[in-house]
């Protein structure tokens, strides 16, 4: 990659995913996550901007959205007054240094180094002869602290006298107060100093929850490398900056004022800042001096000084830093890849890291992700579990079980996940809204769990149902329900009802089958996966998710037969009311009749508006399987017959949607060709489209949606219309977010679908394009990983928190490397192209399967292309395995894997000929 006047590309350093980047401050909008699993969440920029928080209501630094990163002067700063004549910010946040940013040849150089949840910025000014190295990270424990080590070095030939001052503004309240009562809430501040820094403990929390006594203490403390504590503090922001001053040119630093206060000072009712003055130092040429700054959010004031004892020395900082590195290295040790492209393999480590970040940050606590008030959505919950199944499978069973407690008896679900396991909320502000795709994801994720574990008994375990005032998929309100009734579905006797996980899955799929619109596709309701399709709630239909539910129904019908075969179960117990939905047994209806389907569903809804009978009936498992298969076959035939488009240019694909005027969304229009990627993905992935149709879809996609400029495949063509009868996304500028961007999540699912159907070359080409675009820093302007989307200018947007990461991880392991489960057995089905093998004709994937460490290595000595090779032999730890090939895939019985030793890396070598 070529260097330009402002930046160069980031490059990996070593074997652990660490990277470096020169002049990171010359790219707008860059930020990095720093967090732990105890609740501390920071964002940090190359200029040490960003924010620090533990929740929506507890921000230590001022909350920031992405636009604030270049507008706000609030940052973690460390000032040097050198020889009483030079003012220099070790973090680059001074008035003079901001001007230097635009100079092509500057006396100040900046380099960023980073690894998993740590950042180091090295800044050097050749004119002043000064160098700073600042490392930030969050300890991997339950402490809500961010640690910052600042090292200052004299790199000139004469000694220099320095007056150091750390300065971090303390916001200390809810994000709600950024505009709502910003000044009034400062009047609540009780500010104090101790021996090491500044503490802020507001009297009240003053936000949407009401006026409540506050117990949270915010602190900025610091200590010298020799253990000396500071000589004084400027705890009030207006005193620190001075009249007419600013955070990037504060009077206390510029004039080197000494009117600082000492410890045990109390001042109330002002905006606070952790401005900490250290004693003057004289650095001889080549000498260095270090400081530890501790930024904390504590549940009580008494624990604040404990932070100094725990972290307040260079030795303790280094110990915690090493713990941090080892912790995240271990967390990321469950999956890895080795191919001909080392950069791709390391890049995938950052993709593997991203689902962990979404579990920590939700969708609310990074600069681009500034919506909501914390927590994750229903879809996020199940998508993230896909990655968790590969990275930490032991924890997933209980997690999945708890998640099913969010399903309602009408087949819908809670949409916001609380902080505690199994805690669900109807929606933000109790908005009555149902996303029609939500019922499809739990089965998809659960099936992955079953394939990896073989734990079919999980399906027979019982769980509660979620209950609130919303019923009939948010079309009605249960007037009999009150919050005092609790959040679980009850029976007529007032007892909490429980049904098997299989019953929950069945209910989600089958209710959706009958919930159809005018064209006999499933109703779009509030939206589907594309949240931007949110204005077609009356007549909109989602053909694409009709296809997804159809493939689920077919797969579930087969799974039922596996339950019968492997567990010897002839009958299942389900709630009496659900029998209405199993029409093959209770009384067949005409699936071609929208009226009959809707009527049946309405009859079911009437049975469960408030409570249910609590009675269960037995159903023959084979008959139930046949009912689901009948429904799945009908969906396949319906979509292929009624939703296939051939346009005036001769290209063919599936229509994916109907708008609120009940008109097909895709095809030829006066404004141009209209096509969506989403409408193609699930018909391909679920086997709705045959191979010939897949080939035609690829041609149409390449014609209308493929765009190298945005690094892959666009989500849709330009409709050239603000479609108020479809969704808000069409109000977005084309090429941004859900309106025609390269939306990574759906593009990766498209790649996954192509691989599943054997269109490997086509899938690999798109995957390679995305990777190369993301790594081209001049275009993407992002750190390693895959962003939520790439905008019209080719810039990566919304990094770290995207479902695309989970899907890419599972696509690489299960489809590209072909290491997957089959109801507990190990199935090997490689789909590697020739270019992915190294110069030794090998490539490999490491994973945990049935608690055993497996390194699966492929040998392709003849350098054959995919489609040319087949599995010719296999050895496990040097022992030859019997080639049990099923549809050209090697199946290894789970008993063989279970006999392997735990905590030993086992070598499975597959030769391809």
TrEMBL record:
Domain of life: Bacteria
All residue ranges annotated as the Glycosyl hydrolase 94 catalytic domain in the record: 628-818
Domain called Glycosyl hydrolase 94 supersandwich: residue spans: 75-312
CDD domains to which the protein is assigned, alphabetical: GH94N_LBP_like (cd11749)
Pfam families: GH94_b-supersand, Glyco_hydro_94
PANTHER family found in the cross-reference section: CELLOBIONIC ACID PHOSPHORYLASE, CELLOBIONIC ACID PHOSPHORYLASE-RELATED
Protein name per the record: Cellobiose phosphorylase
Organism expressing this protein natively: Clostridium frigoris
């Amino acid at each position: 990659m070529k260097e330009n006047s402002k930046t160069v590309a980031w490059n990996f350093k070593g074997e652990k995913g660490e990277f470096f980047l020169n002049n990171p401050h010359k790219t707008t909008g860059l930020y990095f996550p720093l967090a732990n699993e105890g609740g501390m969440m920071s964002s940090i920029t190359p200029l040490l901007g960003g924010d620090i928080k533990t929740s929506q209501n507890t921000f230590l630094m001022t909350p920031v959205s992405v636009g604030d990163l270049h507008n706000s002067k609030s940052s973690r700063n460390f000032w040097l007054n050198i020889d009483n004549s030079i003012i220099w910010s070790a973090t680059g946040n001074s008035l003079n240094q901001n001007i230097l940013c635009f100079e092509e040849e500057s006396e100040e150089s900046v380099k960023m180094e980073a690894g998993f949840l740590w950042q180091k910025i090295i800044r050097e000014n050749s004119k002043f002869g000064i160098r700073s190295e600042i490392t930030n990270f969050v300890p991997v424990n339950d402490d809500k602290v961010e640690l910052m080590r600042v090292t200052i070095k004299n790199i000139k030939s004469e000694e220099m006298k320095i007056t150091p001052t750390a300065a971090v503004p303390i916001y200390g309240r809810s994000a709600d107060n950024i505009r709502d009562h910003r000044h009034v809430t400062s009047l609540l501040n009780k500010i104090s100093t101790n021996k090491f820094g500044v503490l802020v403990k507001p009297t009240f929390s003053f936000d949407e929850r009401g006026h409540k006594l506050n117990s949270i203490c915010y602190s900025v403390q610091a200590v010298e490398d020799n253990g000396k504590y500071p000589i004084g503090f400027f705890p009030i922001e207006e005193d620190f900056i001075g009249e007419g001053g600013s955070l990037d040119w504060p009077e206390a630093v510029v004039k080197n004022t000494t009117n600082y206060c000492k410890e045990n000072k109390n001042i109330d009712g002002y905006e606070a800042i952790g401005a900490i003055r250290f004693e003057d130092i004289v650095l001889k040429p080549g000498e260095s001096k270090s400081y530890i700054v501790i930024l904390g959010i504590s549940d009580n004031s008494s624990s604040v000084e404990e932070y100094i004892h725990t972290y307040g020395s260079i030795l303790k900082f280094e110990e915690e830093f090493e713990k941090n590195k080892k912790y995240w290295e271990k967390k990321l040790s469950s999956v890895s890849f080795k191919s001909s492209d080392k950069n791709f393999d390391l890049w995938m480590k950052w993709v593997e890291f991203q689902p962990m970040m979404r579990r920590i940050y939700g969708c609310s606590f990074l600069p681009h992700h500034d919506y909501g008030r914390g927590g994750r959505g229903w879809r996020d919950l199940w998508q993230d579990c896909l990655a968790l199944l590969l990275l930490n499978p032991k924890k997933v069973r209980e997690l999945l079980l708890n998640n099913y407690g969010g399903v309602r008896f009408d087949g819908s679900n809670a949409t916001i996940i609380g902080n505690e396991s199994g805690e669900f909320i109807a929606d933000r502000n109790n908005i009555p809204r149902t996303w029609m795709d939500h019922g499809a994801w739990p089965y998809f994720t659960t099936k992955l769990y079953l394939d990896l574990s073989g734990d079919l008994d999980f399906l027979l375990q019982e769980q509660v149902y979620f209950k609130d005032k919303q019923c009939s998929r948010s079309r009605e309100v249960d007037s009999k329900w009150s919050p005092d009734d609790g959040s679980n579905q009850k029976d007529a006797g007032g007892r909490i009802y429980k049904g098997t996980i299989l019953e929950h899955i069945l209910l989600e799929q089958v209710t959706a089958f009958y919930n159809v619109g005018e064209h006999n596709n499933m109703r779009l309701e509030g939206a589907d996966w594309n949240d931007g399709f949110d204005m077609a709630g009356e007549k909109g239909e989602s053909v694409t998710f009709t296809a997804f539910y159809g493939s689920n129904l077919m797969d579930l019908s087969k799974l039922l037969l596996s339950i019968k075969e492997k567990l010897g179960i002839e009958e299942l117990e389900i709630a009496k009311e659900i029998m209405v939905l199993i029409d093959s047994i209770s009384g067949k209806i005409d699936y071609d009749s929208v009226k009959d389907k809707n009527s049946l569903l309405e009859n079911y809804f009437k049975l469960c508006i408030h409570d249910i009978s609590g009675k269960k009936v037995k159903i023959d498992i084979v008959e139930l399987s046949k009912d689901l298969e009948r429904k799945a076959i009908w969906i396949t035939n319906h979509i292929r017959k009624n939703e296939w488009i051939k346009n005036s240019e001769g290209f063919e694909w599936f229509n994916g949607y109907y708008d609120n005027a009940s008109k097909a969304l895709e095809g030829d229009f006066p404004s141009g060709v209209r096509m969506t990627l989403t409408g193609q993905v699930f018909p391909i992935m679920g086997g709705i489209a045959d191979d010939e149709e897949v080939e035609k879809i690829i041609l149409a996609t390449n014609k209308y949606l493929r765009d190298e400029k945005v690094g892959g495949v666009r989500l849709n063509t330009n409709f050239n219309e603000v479609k108020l009868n479809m969704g808000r996304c069409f109000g977005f500028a084309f090429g941004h977010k859900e309106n025609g961007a390269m939306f990574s999540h759906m593009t990766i699912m498209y790649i996954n679908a192509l691989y599943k159907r054997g269109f490997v070359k086509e899938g690999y080409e798109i995957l390679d394009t995305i990777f190369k675009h993301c790594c081209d820093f001049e275009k993407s302007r992002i750190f390693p990983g895959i962003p939520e989307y790439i905008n019209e200018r080719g810039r990566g947007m919304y990094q770290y928190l995207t479902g695309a990461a989970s899907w890419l991880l599972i696509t690489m392991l299960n489809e590209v490397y072909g290491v997957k489960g089959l109801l507990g057995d190990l199935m090997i089905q490689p789909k590697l192209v020739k270019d992915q093998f190294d110069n030794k004709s090998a490539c490999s994937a490491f994973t945990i399967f049935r608690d055993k460490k497996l390194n699966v290595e492929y040998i392709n000595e003849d350098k054959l292309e995919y489609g040319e090779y087949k599995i010719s032999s296999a050895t496990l730890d040097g022992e030859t395995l019997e080639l049990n090939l099923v549809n050209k895939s090697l199946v290894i019985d789970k008993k063989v894997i279970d006999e392997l030793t735990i905590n030993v890396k086992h070598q499975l070598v597959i030769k391809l000929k």
